[in-house]
Amino acid sequence: MNEENISIISAFFSRISQFFNEFSWQDIKEVSLSSITSFSENYENILKPALNETIYMSLMAVLFGFLLAIIPGILLAIWDKNGIKENKIAYSILDFITNILRAFPFLILIVVLLPLSKIIVGTSIGTNAAIVPLAIGIAPYLAKMLESAFKEIDKGIIEAAKSYGASNIQIIFKVIFSEALPAIISGITLTLIFTIGFSALAGTVGGGGLGDVAIRYGYERFNKEVMIQTVVILLILVQLVQILGNLFYTWAKNSKTTYIIATLLILLGVSIVININNDENFFWQAIIFILFLGSLLYKGFKK
């Protein structure tokens, strides 16, 4: 483990706190005004690329984290008491492992998994390298979220499906997932919000994004304007994620999943255009775009 990286991470919040403690009220007024006037230039040169990296890291981490969490989440739900295939021993073991992983400090997890990032993506720095620890770090949270969402389903619906002769696989994917979709969307929204915060921390060890900008351009160069602009952008980004999450939740409650897929398709299309010059980001986003498009077409043909 790289001791230098650990020291950087452990000192992150204290450094930021010390940075802002040097402000006086007069400083805050002056810096706020200069932040507004310098925003346009800083956004084009520094903040816009970092924002794109943060969005890319967060979305990819949640996507791959969700894929890692699906099987454990399903198993936790079906093995639990009153599950469709109760298994107390297996549930206790899997629940214990999940809770241990959730309790693991994320700041340390980033550094521990840097060698794994190098094996998977070929490098231990950059946005793609940061996705590996982000995805693994949030997967246990998503697994417990899925378990909770599945448990909220009315048992009568599951019993009705059994009475019609549905197999366990059919119950899981055609009944449980469908009924739990609003709760899943709500959980993913919350996960994406704190993943954005985690991605900022990943910037302290070369992960890129707004966290990297805040340290390199804000703290180390004593540029208070960049620091404030970075914080404001993160706040706005979190609010937008919450608004979209609430919208998707409402659509899911009204069984309008087609709208959700179509909206995600549009957002991914915009993201692809933004990152068209970034070969790595463009490739992965194009793949996801195709998957969502396939889902939308499949749903249309199924009707």
As an assembly, this protein is single chain
What is the number of independent domains? Answer: 2
Distance between the termini: 54 Å
Largest sheet: none
Name the overall outline.
elongated
* CATH class label of the largest domain: Mainly Alpha
- Tally of DSSP helical segments: 13
Element order: H for helix, E for strand? HHHHHHHHHHHHH
Q: Which bin fits the share of residues in helices?
A: over 70%
The CATH architecture of the largest domain is Orthogonal Bundle
Q: What percent strand?
A: under 5%
Mean pLDDT: 73
Q: Find the CATH topology of the largest domain.
A: MetI-like fold
Poorly predicted parts: 1-9
Q: What's the total number of strands?
A: 0
CATH homologous superfamily designation of the largest domain: MetI-like
Structural class: mainly alpha
The rounded Rg comes to: 22 Å
Q: Would you write up a description of this structure?
A:
Its main location: membrane. InterPro entries: AA_ABC_Transporter_Permease (IPR051322), MetI-like (IPR000515), MetI-like_sf (IPR035906). By secondary structure, the protein is mainly α. It has 2 domains: 3-241, MetI-like fold (Orthogonal Bundle); 256-303. It contains 13 helices and no strands. It has helices at 3-10, 12-21, 25-79, 88-103, 106-112, 114-121, 127-151, 155-163, 168-202, 210-219, 224-253, 257-274, 279-302. It starts with a helix and ends with a helix.
